[in-house]
Specification:
Length: about 450
């Protein structure tokens, strides 16, 4: 048993340590750049980035996530020839689509920036992001490819390599030209160039890893071509994933527009709205999301493991192990919630020099156990091929979350606490839906108290 768990523990530690290192380094690096360039260049990039992410989502069409499951299945069947063929097909499809979109974005960057953001300074920045778009989409496909093959090292170090490439360019520029503070336009261009170089560095590293470590192994084990799935079925399985991610992306944009309008109905001024949203989004939410960092690596390992268990027909045994994992996640989340609630004020003073974030934590912390367990159950549903279910569940929950916010946020007694309750309610409902679609569907005899030993729910005999 220990021999079987040892590779997973090693992969978990690798993903966790790289994520923590990147998080700490990212905070220090961002503070340094803010002091060098000021906040306004980051504001320009912040306007562009949601549109850039939306384009990358439309180009890849959910293929990286669908690719993970199908590669894991074919790897379990030892059909490595299909893996090589489908990799070439998917890469060609994404590369051609990304090239066409990036060309259009580059050519019409200036009028598009003026139309979308009413700021001509965004036009030159969009050109650099157009060049980075092709590289970013190929990096996403590479990550899905390595994820399906259960190659964790490139997943763990891809973001670190990207950040290192970006940092190297910007630091070399800063230290080679000791000059007065740059203008906003010049600083924005330097940041955009750094991002472009970071994406190029990441893609180059993933390409070299594939050529030196992965492709020779697959080629040696697949001397002859084997039949497998074509691109059309792969696209059909990826469309629900693309639609789900697209809906989530649009929902985040809609929420950023809806909340200020709801707070205005509650009688708040624009200054008060900006202040409250800053406290909610930039202070309270990071405190809630930070505990998820320990379980994000586990969710990375779950998707291909679920696909392999489906092929090998040992899902009941696999779900028994998941049950222990969910028990640990529940206990961990309850303990962290208690600690955050108890030490919220000193922690908030240490991080933000104010206790403003603590007023939202009592309404946000009930969502933490559900968020952590949903983070584990979502890749299980993806590994089982339930993409259509995830899309439907996402649409229902966004509708419920929006309804709760619209009902409570305008009330002066609630305000943004109503948004916190909407998040908690939607996460609790998502957990119930995921539980029904995974455990209760695959293992029909599962009891409602499946996370605990059944003897705790038996009445003693008199």
């Amino acid at each position: 048993m220990k021999a079987k768990l040892h590779p997973y523990c090693r992969k978990y530690v690798l993903l966790t340590m790289s994520s923590l290192l990147l998080r700490v380094y990212g905070v220090i690096y961002r503070l340094f750049l803010l002091r060098c360039f000021g906040a306004e260049p980051f504001g320009l990039l912040g306007m562009i980035f949601p549109f850039y992410r939306l384009l990358s989502l439309l180009i890849t069409m959910g293929l990286p996530t669908a690719f993970v499951r199908l590669i894991a299945i074919e790897k379990a069947k030892k059909n490595t020839a299909w893996i090589l063929q489908s990799k070439k097909t998917v890469f060609t499809f994404v590369a051609v689509t990304a090239f066409l979109v990036s060309c259009l974005l580059f050519l019409f960057a200036t009028p598009l920036g003026s139309l979308l953001y009413n700021d001509l300074r965004t036009g030159p920045l969009l050109k650099y992001y157009a060049l980075a778009l092709n590289l970013h989409c190929l990096c996403l496909v590479y990550r899905g490819y390595f994820h399906g093959l259960d190659r964790i090292a490139p997943l763990a170090f891809a973001d670190l390599i990207e950040t290192l490439g970006e940092t190297t360019f910007i630091l070399l520029f800063l230290f080679s030209r000791p000059c007065p503070r740059l203008s906003v336009e010049a600083a924005g261009l330097i940041l955009a160039k750094g991002y472009l170089l970071g994406e190029a560095t990441c893609l180059g590293a993933l390409f070299l890893y594939d050529r030196s470590r992965v492709r020779p192994v697959l080629t040696n084990t697949a001397p002859q071509a084997a039949s497998g799935r074509k691109l059309l079925p792969l696209l059909c399985s990826s469309f629900p994933l693309m639609a789900q991610q697209l809906v989530l992306s649009l929902a985040r944009i809609a929420e950023s527009i809806l909340l200020p309008k709801l707070l205005t109905k509650g009688g708040l001024t624009p200054t008060q709205i900006a202040h409250n949203l800053g406290e909610y989004w930039e202070m309270a939410m990071p405190l809630l999301l930070f505990p998820l960092i320990l379980f994000s690596p586990v969710s990375t390992l779950i998707l291909p493991a679920t696909a392999r268990a489906t092929v090998k027909n040992n899902l009941p045994v696999y779900f028994q192990k998941l049950r222990w994992l969910l028990r640990g996640a529940l206990l961990y989340s309850l303990g962290v919630s208690f600690l955050l609630l108890k030490f919220a004020k000193p922690l908030s003073l240490l991080l933000y020099e104010t206790t403003a974030a603590t007023r939202y934590l009592p309404f946000l912390l009930p969502a933490l156990p559900f968020m952590i367990m949903n983070n584990l159950l979502t890749p299980v549903a993806e590994g089982l091929g339930k993409q259509v279910f995830l899309l439907r569940a996402t649409l229902v929950l966004i509708f419920i979350k929006t309804g709760v916010m619209a009902a409570f946020v305008p009330l002066p007694a609630f305000g943004l606490a109503g948004a916190a309750w909407a998040l908690t309610i939607s996460q609790a409902l998502l957990f119930c839906l995921l539980l029904k679609e995974t455990f209760y569907t695959v293992v029909p005899n599962t009891k409602w108290f499946f996370l605990f030993k059944s003897k705790f729910f038996h009445l003693p005999k008199l």
